[in-house]
Amino acid sequence: MQGTSELSLDESALDLSGSKRWREEIIKGILFLCASLSVLTTFAIVFILVKEAGIFFQEVSVFDFLFGTKWTPLLEPRSFGVLPLVCGTLLVVVGTALFALPVGMATAIYLSEYAPSRLRSILKPLLEVLAGIPTVVYGYFALTFITPMLRSVLPDVQIFNAASAAIVVGIMVLPMVASLCDDTLRAVPDSLRQGAYAVGATPFEVNMGVVVPSALSGIMASFVLALSRAIGETMAVTLAAGATPRMTADPFVAIQTMTAYIVQVSLGDTPAGEIGYQTIFAVSALLFVITLFMNIFSSKMLKRFREVYE
User: Does residue 80 sit in helix, strand or coil?
Assistant: First the structure.
């Protein structure tokens, strides 16, 4: 009887083990499908961009598209030089970087190194609330508040201008920079801080000479994410910057970014399949390539800084 009981227990254990194994295989398969979905989505996006942009480049040369200085694809005589859109995008991105990166970094240093824990617990959630505001609200905020403020100081500022768009996009990405930099700075071991204090360094010297260099890889990552967000921002710059593609370095005039142009054509006024409609895929492909090279560059930079400070 005892042998029979032990045998039945062993069989039950084997059945249970087999059931667990099947459940593990099912879970593994579901996780594989989820991982494959993101890869397939990326390939589908690339395939569509290459296919539709290829139709456009059958009629327009790549050289004229990349190096032309006039962008009038919807008006006669048509011109397909994308540099005015690239110039407008870079103008907004540079303005965003000049505003958001130093302010976000300073905010992160204060929250991580100087703010009392009670004040930090209040300020950081309030800062992250900015990330939840819809982008279209930021666009109207730029039109109704930032632009009038700029015009009160400089009357020649146009209603739609790159400076207003850059400031509002800088406000949008500020929580991302501050939050990620704060987390990175707090991850630096306290032993490094204590060692610097032990040799007589001041708090400012500890922060600038020890903590920030040690967290440089994470700081660079937050900067790249912020600039990628600025490049891909659509509604805020569409409302604030206008729809006038031009080659200019003046931030106080109307410009048009690549994403704003895509919105303009996607409204439905341009017939699908027409050369003007195909321009949105060419511009999207260029935007994809720019973002890809940014990510490659950032990966190399992060690898370099990790090798230095690990």
Answer: strand
SS3 78: coil
Q: What domain range includes position 129?
A: 71-309
Q: How far apart, in Å, are the Cα atoms of 178 and each of 100, 105, 136, 307? A: 9, 6, 22, 24
Do residues 176 and 103 lie in contact, with contact meaning Cβ atoms separated by under 8 Å?
no
Please check whether residue 239 lies inside any domain of the structure. Answer: yes
Q: How far is CA 264 from CA 23, 57, 96, 168, 193, in A?
A: 50, 21, 22, 20, 52
Phi, psi of 297 (to 5 degrees): -60, -45
| Residue 268, burial from CB neighbour count under 10 angstroms (0-12, 13-18, 19+) | exposed
Same domain? For 54 and 115 the reply is no
pTM value? 0.81
Q: Compute the C-alpha angle 137/90/145, nearest 5°.
A: 30
E strands in 202-303:
none
Asked if 256 and 222 sit in the same domain, the reply is: yes
Give the pLDDT confidence of 169-226 residue by residue, as tens digits. 999 999 888 888 888 888 888 888 888 888 888 888 888 888 888 888 788 888 888 8
Three-class DSSP category at 268: coil
What's 182's domain CATH number?
1.10.3720.10
Q: Same structural domain for residues 260 and 152?
A: yes
Q: Tell whether 271 is covered by a domain.
A: yes
Q: In which residue are the tokens 């409302």 written?
A: 239
Same-domain check for residues 154 and 277: yes
Q: Which two tokens stand for residue 58?
A: 């059958």
The whole-angstrom separation of Cα 165 and Cα 68 is 25
Longest dimension (CA), the chain: 100
Euclidean distance between CA atoms 160 and 239, whole angstroms: 8
Nearest C-alpha neighbor of 275 from the set 83, 75, 44: 75
